[in-house]
């Protein structure tokens, strides 16, 4: 396999205190297209804290969005990676959320959630995002955010896939394929990003990427468990009481060749 990938979503200490569920979800899978080329698909979604069924919205976003992305890349490979894919995935998610809202007798806003997505093939990467949280990528050098987290008009506000104008806040970008990348929800963005300079806080990531690069293939499960333990640790909970999701992916040496988009 061309990638090593780990990920975890953990409930925040404030949600534990209030007996509330974890409203974060994540999805990641390494797929193969018709030629045998491998593509990494990864999604993170954070249910709005004010949404009654935010955890359902985030689950739908990752499950429905991940399923549609896999169908696209398994059929057409990285040649399919273009801006229209992000709009299509958003439409699929919104439709599924509308159906779930109707079944519960609530408005879609009750399932409000953010969305971050990445699809990486041998040479090209496609990223998209609605709301906060972030994706950082390493294209041969330092880690850097793909998009800066988008806040709303007021503090602690952002945009959601259920917003009537969600398509206006859907950002997408096609780039060269990275060597490494990470997706994470806003629960850890204050630890993972330097807001003063709008850069990635590399000391947060480097120990984890180093461990992932050096691990045998059969240790993925144990690394996922270690990641979950880290995100649930007192050291992290002292700095953020929100739900937390983190996906880390590193490309194996010699897997794929990077060319200009």
TrEMBL record:
The PPM-type phosphatase domain, residue ranges: 11-219
The record ties this protein, via Pfam families, to: PP2C_2
Q: What is this protein called?
A: Serine/threonine phosphoprotein phosphatase
Organism, by scientific name, is: Paraburkholderia atlantica
